[in-house]
Amino acid sequence: MRQMTMEELALPIKGAMRDGPFGSNLKSSHFVDEGIKVIRTQNIKKTGYVDQNVAYITPEKAKELERYEFKPGDLVIAKLGSDPGVAAVIPESCGTGIIPADVVRFRGDPRIIDHYYLARFLNSPKAKQQIEKRSRGSTRTRVNLTALREIVIDVPTLKEQERIASILDKADEIKNESDKAQILREDLVQSLFYDMFGDPVANPMDWQIQVLGDICGVGSSKRVFKSELVEEGIPFYRGTEIGKLGNGETITPSLFITKQHYETLKEHSGVPRIGDLLMPSICPDGRIFTVISDSAFYFKDGRVLWIKVDQSIINSTFLRYLLKAIFYSNYENIASGTTFAELKIFALKKMMLPLPPIELQDKFARTLKLIKKIPTTEVLVETNSNSLIQEMLT
Length: 394
Hints:
Shape: elongated
Mean pLDDT: 88
Number of strands: 21
Radius of gyration: 28 Å
Oligomer: single chain
């Protein structure tokens, strides 16, 4: 990944990176009730352009200042205010207008830089640290045009820039749509998975193929008879409960085995460990549960399938989403049965899986962890958004 300054990223034309007119060329006394827009610092937020409290000048005045014109797709940067250096892209709905002295208009070389990605980067801690070092003023902090030209930007490929910007846009959707948060999160994770690894059935990235049974233990539990169930003790889950857990639902156990029985099972046949995957035998929608704690529980044989994951070979978070993706598109060719297509242990063992490098699997899991932390409130916790962009840049 290259590192380039803002000046190097600008189009090789005069005025590609310019701030607005100084002095008496544009004053508040020039503002009118309607006309041509003037974007001020209060219209530039991390969340994007804000079309509120917009100032206007006459078309005649705008003609006089046309060298300071902005248009849709331009990047605008605030030079002062509560957050100097904050950047946003002008949307199509805004139209054209004029920038004042405290705003910079930037037009990047489209062969090198995507404006939406650049806005995200400028609003990230890595850029903010550089801007703070170059800012001046104790009462009203300001960063000048020369300092902004010197800001160093991490520049991945254009395709990667567009991917990062798209993922972060979807993350913003989550925080503003609390009622749909779980669906939006899953859509975001699925999009991230396909971006990073491609369709696991078609394997367009030509990852190495491995047989599931060769890299993981695949089986079920030791049989627990109905007569061995008790009214309280260690939770005992059937396929229904495992499926709900796989969907992220909270459940209240209704069946139990004794602690002594659990310890016997643990000694003779083992119990699920953190990172293992469990799924109901009827699982076309990928309701796969990842064991995330060492809290004791056991499960019904036959109706629940157990994948014992070796995390040194395959990341269990990656494997869960890999299996979900395969089940979504190819379940009927893996499961068997005429009424209810059921997954069999032998069929799971024979599944052919594309296996990217473990480092890439781990990166997916780390990014997913950050996505899961995105709160469903109106304000996105700053550290989560910042961590997400930094993770995708490494």
